[in-house]
Structure formats: structure tokens, C-alpha cells
């Protein structure tokens, strides 16, 4: 498998204004493409931010608008896009949904956030998903979980046991707990011997300030790239072979004792 160049677009989301965010993201992807990445990664709920009480009006119906824009950009630039997540209206419910697109613009993954974050009232406005998905990006088996999901190592492990080597994490993680974010991401990379590619937003909304520090971590736990707390496009190149190397060095998947804890 050949190396893959990633571009994580860490930006400030315009509160409750999908149109503004679609144009902002289109412009930022155009900017990122100057460096010719293989994969673009976006943050959580990037079309609306946490304007939860207005989701009935502004959530994307069946994700149609987002899928249309992302598919067109992926195809136009011949780039994979892990399109963060958006508020998706489906059959009278709203989910926090992540889509991924391949270079042909085909949607290859759909994941709905499983753990809803009560501290930010998610459970009052959103429905939780209950499915995991492993998809192939170039030749790299990958999975996406969203923000608060990283506090649940048992959930992440199920993706690894299903074959994932790379975990994408779109987020809107607030500044006061940014050290939790960093530590949890490092732990998920080390304990699963997987790449962790985590894209957070910056800026603020009426209730929270968001801390950035998007990160790319390798399966040994080395930080390959880390952003600051301002808007930034973070680039990193990963070598998918590194996963096999680390998993052979310390064979945790062979040494597990599921007879004791599953
Ligand atoms: O777990 C945390 O501290 C932050 C989670 C969060 O902001 C979210 O899931 O949207």
C-alpha cells in the first residue's frame, strides 16, 4: 500500500447557516488541493454547528445537499473526502451523520453518531445511530466515529475487530476539555495500534468555544501532525504498512483474552 497524504480542514463553522458553510468548505477544499492530498477530512456538524433548536428547518434532508456537493468535489478533484458529519433529517428524525466519498465521487460510507453528548443537549434534538461501518479508502480499511464516541474504547474496539486500521474522528470538541481530547485520541491510537485522524473545529457558538488541535497519530502513538487553535489546513502523510509493523512488534490482537472479557 502506498503512502497517503491527508488534509484536515480545521475551520470556524458559521452558526446555523448551511449555505455559508457549503461555500466556505468549497473554498477551503480548493485551497487544500494545491498541496495535492489524497484525502480531505472535515469536522463534526459542519453545515449547521450546534444550532440544535433550529434543526427541523436547517438539517439536510436525507443528506442530499451535502452528498451532492461532496460527491461533485471528490469527483472534480479526484480526491477522497471523509466529509466530517452533518445534521441529517431522515424519516422525521435528525441524526449526526458522517459520509465518506471516493475519488469517483461515490458515497462509500454512512455512519450515525452512536453516543449522544448530554452536556451539549444532543439527546434532546438528535437520534443515535446503532451501526458501525468499515470502509476502504484507497486500500486502507477505515472507520469513522464522531466526537464523544471516542470516550467509549469498547465501541472503537469493535471497529478494529472488524478490520479497521485507521479511525477518522470528526469533532466539535470544546476548549475546556482539550487535554481530554488529546489524551483520548492518543490512547485510542496506542491501544488499537491504528492511525487516528481527528479533525476538530475552532471558533465559538453562543454556548461554547472550540479548541482545534486536530491531530494525525500513527499506530505507535507518535503525533505526525497537530494543529493549533486557529483555522488551519493540517497536512500529514501516513504509511498504511506501519499498522502491520506495529501489530507484529507487539501482537495485542493475538494476546487478547476475550474468554475473560467478552
Ligand atoms: O466528550 C467531550 O468532552 C466532548 C464531546 C462533544 O463535544 C461532542 O460529542 O459533541
Automatic annotation (TrEMBL):
<dbReference type="InterPro" id="IPR036526">
    <property type="entry name" value="C-N_Hydrolase_sf"/>
</dbReference>
<protein>
    <submittedName>
        <fullName>Hydrolase</fullName>
    </submittedName>
</protein>
<keyword id="KW-0378">Hydrolase</keyword>
<dbReference type="GO" id="GO:0016787">
    <property type="term" value="F:hydrolase activity"/>
</dbReference>
<feature type="domain" description="CN hydrolase">
    <location>
        <begin position="4"/>
        <end position="240"/>
    </location>
</feature>
<comment type="similarity">
    <text>Belongs to the carbon-nitrogen hydrolase superfamily. NIT1/NIT2 family.</text>
</comment>
<dbReference type="Pfam" id="PF00795">
    <property type="entry name" value="CN_hydrolase"/>
</dbReference>
<dbReference type="InterPro" id="IPR001110">
    <property type="entry name" value="UPF0012_CS"/>
</dbReference>
<dbReference type="InterPro" id="IPR003010">
    <property type="entry name" value="C-N_Hydrolase"/>
</dbReference>
Amino acid at each position: 500500500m502506498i503512502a497517503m497524504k491527508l488534509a484536515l480542514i480545521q475551520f470556524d463553522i458559521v452558526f446555523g447557516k448551511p449555505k455559508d458553510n457549503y461555500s466556505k468548505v468549497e473554498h477551503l477544499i480548493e485551497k487544500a488541493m494545491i498541496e495535492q492530498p489524497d484525502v480531505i477530512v472535515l469536522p463534526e456538524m459542519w453545515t449547521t454547528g450546534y444550532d440544535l433548536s433550529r434543526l427541523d428547518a436547517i438539517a439536510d434532508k436525507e443528506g442530499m445537499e451535502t452528498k451532492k456537493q461532496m460527491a461533485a468535489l471528490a469527483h472534480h478533484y479526484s480526491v477522497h473526502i471523509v466529509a466530517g458529519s452533518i445534521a441529517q433529517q431522515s424519516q422525521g428524525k435528525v441524526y449526526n451523520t458522517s459520509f465518506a466519498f471516493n475519488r469517483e465521487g461515490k458515497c462509500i460510507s454512512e455512519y450515525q453518531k452512536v453516543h449522544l453528548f448530554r452536556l451539549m443537549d444532543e439527546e434532546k434534538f438528535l437520534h443515535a445511530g446503532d451501526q458501525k461501518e468499515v470502509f476502504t479508502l484507497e486500500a486502507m480499511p477505515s472507520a469513522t466515529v464522531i466526537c464523544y464516541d471516542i470516550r467509549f474504547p469498547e465501541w472503537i474496539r469493535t471497529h478494529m475487530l472488524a478490520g479497521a486500521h485507521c479511525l477518522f474522528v470528526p469533532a466539535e470538541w470544546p476548549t475546556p476539555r482539550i487535554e481530554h481530547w488529546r489524551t483520548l485520541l492518543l490512547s485510542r491510537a496506542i491501544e488499537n495500534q491504528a492511525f487516528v485522524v481527528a479533525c476538530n473545529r475552532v471558533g465559538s457558538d453562543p454556548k461554547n468555544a472550540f479548541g482545534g488541535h486536530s491531530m494525525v497519530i500513527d499506530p505507535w502513538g507518535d503525533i505526525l501532525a497537530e494543529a493549533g487553535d486557529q483555522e488551519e489546513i493540517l497536512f500529514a502523510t501516513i504509511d498504511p504498512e506501519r499498522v502491520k509493523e506495529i501489530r507484529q512488534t507487539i501482537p495485542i490482537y493475538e494476546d487478547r483474552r476475550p474468554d475473560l472479557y467478552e
